[in-house]
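Quick sanity check, EF-hand domain-containing protein:
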Amino acid sequence: MDELDRQIEDAKTDEKELNQVLEKYDLDEALALEFSEIDKAFRQLEIKYQALLSTRKFLSNG
């Protein structure tokens, strides 16, 4: 029985190591940050586009 207990202990996942790996490869967090940056850039582009449209309307009516 001691041999079986030892094998079971050896097969268990080291929680500290597991947490290190999960932090290193946290794809959800990385993707969320990437999406946030893309969304931020898109919003800036949208603001610039609206400003260009407004300028165009102003110049064509002037």
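Posting the structure with no commentary besides this: The longest helix spans residues 27-61.
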